[in-house]
Amino acid sequence: MSPINLLHVFSTFATGGPQVRLAAMANHWGKKYRHTIIAMDGVYDCAEKFDAGVEFELHRLEFTKGATRENVVLFWKKLKEWRPDLLLTYNFGAIEWALANFFGRHPHIHIEDGFGPDEADGRQLARRVWLRRAGLFFGKHLVVPSNTLHELATLNWRLPERKVSFIANGIDCARFANDAPDPEGPLFPRGDDEIIIGTLGALRPEKNLSRLVRAFAMLDTCPNARLVIAGSGTAGEDAKRQAHELGISQRVTFTGYVAKPERAYHLFDIFALSSDTEQMPLGMLEAMAAGLPVAAVDVGDVKRMLPLESTPYVYGCFDDELSRSMTQLCADAELRKKLGAVNRRHARKHYSLVRMCDEYDALFTRTARDTMLNQHETGSSGFMQFMKRLKPT
Q: Are 304 and 147 in contact (CB under 8 A)?
C-alpha cells in the first residue's frame, strides 16, 4: 500500500503531549502514512521517539515570525506546491497555516489540545477567538481531546458540532503497567520508608510547579514524603527557586529529562498535578496506567478522566487544597493501593492506544477521501488514484 502523505504543522516539536501522541500513533500505523513535520520554532527533539520503520521528514522553513500576512501567502504557496493528502495543524501556534488554507482547498484537520498560561482559567483572548473562528470554519475539521474544549469550540468559537470531533487521548497501558525491575537501575535513589510524590512532563509555565512546591511544603504531618519533579523545561528553575526560598530543597528532587517515563512512575507513590490549565494530560493517563493515585487541582477534564473513587482528591485550585489531597493520600497506604488499582483498570478500559489510533486513522482517511470527492476541480482520476492507495497492492 502506497503511504498517505500527512503534513503536520506544530508550533514546536519539542517533547510534549501532542508530539508524543503523534509519535505513538505513527509507530502504531507503521508504513500506512508518510509524515512531513514542520516545527515553527525549528525544534524537533521529539523526533527521537519515532521507530526506525516510520517514514518521516523534518522540514525546516524560513519565515518571519509575526508577519502574518506574508506568512499566510508563503504557506499558501507551499501547500499548493506540496499538495499533501492531508494537512494537520496543531494548536494556535499553527493558525497561520489554517488561514493559508482558508477555503479548505486541501484536506485539513486542526487538532487543539489546550492553551498556554495566557489563556488559562477559561480566559479566551478575543483576537485568538476570532482567528480560530475564521481559520477553522471553512472546509476544516476540528479534533479535541476533552469535553471542555468541545464546549469552547462549539460555543465560543461557534463551530458547527458536525465539524468537531472528541477523541480521547490513549496510551500503551501495558508499557506503564509493567512492574518488572528497571533494567537500567533506579532513576533516582529512594529510602525504604519514603513516600514519593511525583510529577512528570514538559516543565512549562502553565504547569505551575511553584504551586506544587508550596503545597508540598505544607505537608507537616508527612516528614518522610519527598517531591520528585521529572522532566525538563524553563519552569523547572522557578520551582527550584521556590524550594530554596521555602527551605525544602533537600526534600525536592529534579531528575531532568526522562526518555522513558515509566522509569519514574514506577518509583512514585502518588502522582500530583498542579497546572493552571490542562485538558487531557498524557502524563496523568500514564500515571493511572502505572497504578498510581492522583492528587490534582480541578482543571480541564482532569476530574472527568478519573473513576468516581478517585475524584475526591481532585478539587479546587489553591495550594492548601492540593496539599490536603496529598496529605490524605500520604497518610493511608491501603487507600493509595486501592485507588491505584482502580485507576489502572480505568485507563485500560477507556484510554488504550489502539482505540485512539483507530479513531484518528478512520478520521484521517475519511477526511482526505471526502474532501477530494467534493473538490470538482481535482477530477475523478485524482480521487481514484487516492482510493487505490488505501488498498493493498
A: yes
Residue 297 pLDDT exceeds 90: yes
**Which residue reads 502523505 in cell numbers?**
5
Q: What is the pTM of this model?
A: 0.85
Round to whole Å and give the CA distance between 194 and 216: 14
Residues 159, 33: Cα–Cα separation, whole Å: 28
For the cut 90, the answer to whether the pLDDT of residue 285 exceeds it is: yes
Contact 228, 198 (CB under 8 A): yes
Q: Provide the b/e sequence for 38-66 (b: ≥16 CB within 10 Å).
A: bbbeeebebbebbeeebebeeeeeeeeee
Which one-letter amino acid corresponds to residue 116?
G
Tell me: pLDDT of 145 over 50. Answer: yes
The span from the CA of 96 to the CA of 75, in Å, is 8
